[in-house]
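Hi everyone,

Forwarding the result from last night's run.
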Amino acid sequence: MSLLFGDDTSPEAEAILIEGYRRMSPSQKLQRVLDLNRTVQILALARIREQYPEANAREVKLRLASLWIDAKIMRSVFGWDPELEGY
């Protein structure tokens, strides 16, 4: 079993991936994180749009933001209660 990548990754493949990460510069690592975060946002937006097809642009943005921002802050700053409205 792979320690970092799960049961479907061989120890040899994991070693190659880790070595590749070690060779990356800090800016390359940061870019990888930014790219992954953007991918997660795109997937979340797709789920929101599928689940709430009638949502306007503001509602979609609030639902997306509520996945990352604390519910208390969402209520006080945006007037959006994710616990009532959904995420």
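The two ends are 34 Å apart (CA to CA).

Cheers,
N.
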